[in-house]
Amino acid sequence: MSEPEYWFDAYHTHAAAGVVLLTKDERLVLQLRDDKPDIENPGMITAFAGGAEPGETPVDCALRELAEETGIRARGEDIHRLGAISKVSFRGDPTASVFFLLTGVDPTQLVITEGTMVLLSLEEAVADPRLTEISRVLVEKVRAMNLFSPK
Known about the structure:
Layout: E1 14-23, E2 27-32, E3 45-46, E4 48-51, H1 58-70, E5 80-88, E6 94-105, E7 116-121, H2 122-127, H3 133-144
Parallel strand pairs: 1-6
Antiparallel strand pairs: 1-2, 1-4, 2-3, 2-7, 5-6
């Protein structure tokens, strides 16, 4: 069974996209969200993500948000789709979100403009109680991909 395609449609009045970052040494680069009550997931660990602008595709949105929040200027062919979800945001908006993976990231080259960068192994991420449920699912998908050969 294939995953549904979510984006703007008759139900989803809002859309967002995000990117999970993975370093060459098998660590995740995630975002510890600011602890502000007026944002989604305050004080939690998430992928770098944000809302779509009118006319943006999921890839366009993910690449724009990635550049805005980390300084990474990736191309569409650099990111790999991890999955899509449908949820109601904390403001009550039906939102479609699409997530991608970017590998080979050098965390020393990032310029974080929102929240705080968090570097975690895949195992540390799964065990961290600050990881959002959506991020936990994404991390499990990355783990299942077996991107790194045994040492």
